[in-house]
Amino acid sequence: xxxxxxxxxxxxxxxxxxxxxxxxxxxxxxxxxxxxxxxxxxxxxxxxxxxxxxxxxxxxxxxxxxxxxxxxxxxxxxxxxxxxxxxxxxxxxxxxxxxxxxxxxxxxxxxxxxxxxxxxxxxxxxxxxxxxxxxxxxxxxxxxxxxxxxxxxxxxxxxxxxxxxxxxxxxxxxxxxxxxxxxxxxxxxxxxxxxxxxxxxxxxxxxxxxxxxxxxxxxxxxxxxxxxxxxxxxxxxxxxxxxxxxxxxxxxxxxxxxxxxxxxxxxxxxxxxxxxxxxxxxxxxxxxxxxxxxxxxxxxx
Length: 301
Description:
The chain has 11 helices and 14 strands. The protein has 301 residues and is α/β, with parallel strands linked by helices. It folds into 3 domains: 3-82, Arc Repressor Mutant, subunit A; 92-161 and 267-296, 3-Layer(aba) Sandwich (D-Maltodextrin-Binding Protein, domain 2), CATH 3.40.190; 163-262, D-Maltodextrin-Binding Protein, domain 2. The longest helix has 23 residues, at 60-82. The protein is elongated and about 75 Å long.
């Protein structure tokens, strides 16, 4: 029995809370995963998992073994990583998940640079704005915006996005330019909703050092960044989004910023990955490269 592989399979089963999901993320048949765990328990002469048709939980011995396995595998990964010389190139498959706006405005335009620098890293990039379960979906790391609440993940701060409120010239000619927050009562906005919030009508500002939320009327709500921007360019209403997403349009005058003196506080951007003490070389390369992208784009850390 390959005990290192058995430990890896055991950790994935516990993290996934399912033999089937663990098998999917490991690329193994479910029967192989079940067999490995059974042989491991026979070798250790203890039951590691309590199994039922609906639930999977650790026994006291299993919980102790789980934490020790995590330490051992982290140490192995760190030892192997430390032996790689400067000329050793990161390699392997890395599955990442990125919000649509950041993907299109920052990651994808510079992807050729990453591929040139790290030709042996195979990137699988998922693009969406929903919350991803890294363990169950087999994702190595995600980029998320906003304040973090998931204490089970390790976070690296990449930067912060400056948000702007803007609209097309045609809309402002029709409705006028708002100078104060009270002016928003006679305006409309393009609403944005996501899987985590349905309060798409709210715009956020900072006034006299305080955070202020204003509900603005509207006639349409979308959950995709590209469509959100297109509606704003068409004169549908005010938009509020990261400056980096519409920098070109602001530069050409296709969009005009309003209430610039009341910009909300920058929104933090972080890279998150499952708890472990050491990053793989591929993930470290992607993390460092992405942080540099934010720095080059002038998004403050």
